[in-house]
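Lab notebook, bench 4. Continuing the backlog of folding jobs that were queued last week. Each job is logged with the same field layout so the records can be merged later without manual cleanup. Today's entry covers Long-chain fatty acid--CoA ligase, a 637-residue chain. Filled in by technician R.K.

JOB TYPE: sequence-to-structure
TARGET: Long-chain fatty acid--CoA ligase
LENGTH: 637
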Amino acid sequence: MNLKTGFSTVPELLRNVVNNIHPETETFLMHKEDGRWKEISFKQTLDNADAISGYLLEIGIKKGDRLGFIIENSPEYIYYDQALQQIGAVNVSIYPTLSEHEIEYILNDAGVRTILVGTPFLLRKIIKIANNCPSLERIIPAFDNYEKYLEGIHLNAGVIGFSALLAQGRKNLPVHEKQILACREAVLPSDLSALIYTSGTTGIPKGAMLTHHNFIENVKASLEQIPVVTSKEVFLSFLPLSHVFERTATYHVCSAKGCRIAFSQSLELLAKNMEEIKPTFMNCVPRLLERIHDKAVKSATQAGGAKAKVFNWAIDIGRKYREIKEAGKRPGLAISIQQKIADKLVFSKIREKTGGRLKCLLSGGAALPKNVGEFFGNLNIKVLEGFGLTETSPIMSITEFDRQVYGTVGRIIPRIEVGIQDVETGKIYTVQTHESFDPSFESPEGEIIVRGHCVMKGYWNKPEDTALAIDPEGWFHTGDVGLFYKGNLKITDRIKNILVNSYGKNVYPTPVENTYLKSQKIEQIFLIGDKREYITAIVVPSKDSLQHEFGLPEEFFQNPEMFIEDKEIREWIAQDIRKLSHELAKFERIKNFMVKRNPFSIEAGEMTPSLKAKRKVIEKKYAHDINKLYQEEEAEG
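JOB STATUS: finished
OUTPUT FIELD FOLLOWS
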């Protein structure tokens, strides 16, 4: 298959697979049903998509109409998306964790005509707001026995179950087959494929308009950069398809190459599903890798003794072996033998818990702490980092498979330009491309800007916001601060996150927070200090570590008091904070902190669905407690 010319729109992807890569009977999707993994072929997927397309045409859906999704990852998501893409409609996926108010805003802003609903819980959400959404014509529960949730309720929109929709679509398909083909052929690369609403840390959501061209070119460029992805891969999908990262890097990549997609049952069952499915590729977020790292280290070293010594020895051998190979040298006989022993005693056992077949993990959504990336490298588990935003389809850069620089997000993908611009003056320091890559190149720090095939068409219904984001020269301003290091892009922080202390010193929270997150005692940390004399923080302790150290019952974490005042617990955390502070400049170090009983969460409105802290929300919500932090320190001083 020629990735450069094989397809130009999303509905062409799977048809390219069955025409050029796999027989249509080959398995495409897998999901757990009644305790067993069920396999679904490319033919079944396309047949279901055609039936749904027939139904959508029957009810008057036309090119450019927006159709909604609020559903967990599942085969139904794929069928419905394939169906609407091939008739030129637009996917509007909504995070299941959003509030009813936010869902209502998106449905009305996008003018959504139908919505596919995944669970009874989500259906109840939609029922509450449906009559406030005048464009909404059909609600489609993806589960049976939904009728009981509608008893006594008047809805302006019609309701049809997914099974009934499929049956009706199949019945009328002969009438619509030629029309579906004509619609598919009429889809242009410049047409909208999706509206993805940004989860922004401030302000109301904005719908990024992503075209078929955006998605297809992003997939082609990413596969050129990571050519090790073959048609035999098995991807385990657990990040939400409502997020652009999972949609492009799993769904669209697999649709382009003919890989299998297995849908994880839940985050809680992810480890079990990995052992069952034995994936070769998986997309993840840094926090998952941090937890795997913390759990592996804790399990191996907590009891001390011979087990801890063997583990630490193995990690050290893995590090030495990795560093020799990364330097382009050939490991000697002695270190090679030691590495094989370390692999047999330690590394292979950890890899078995991932299924034992992983070629690599692709981490995105936030910066991966350098020490965590190196840890996996020491285990001989490849972790590639990617960087991008919803507005960039999303991938702008990815780590090359055979050239890793830990702490960076890789090389610029083909056929786009990435610049570094001075935040104050607007001067562009450098513009780099895939072709200009130089492994020794380094640049000053500034805002990361990008132009090329990955940049969105603009924000839906928001021309002013579009003009602010994309300048007259076509540069999209990411709002991220970064630089080039050894030819690779390195993210420093978000411009909006930068803390400027009362002495004028800039503090970038993310790298400072990542330094403190090296502590196995700390689950989350939120830095404070803008326009203040010094840095303070809200620290969320690791629940497992806290329970192990102090023998705390579950009731401790259900206490309504937001913060933990216990002096022993504070001192226990302070020990690690003092130790890790030596890795930072004096003005970056935490001078005082408070201990939050439970993690920051999406449900509490403190984090975005992509797990970024909402700085303004948190600072406002805990303003009284934050002020006390500074008063305490001044009183002690």
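OBSERVATION: The longest helix spans residues 162-186.
SIGNED: R.K.
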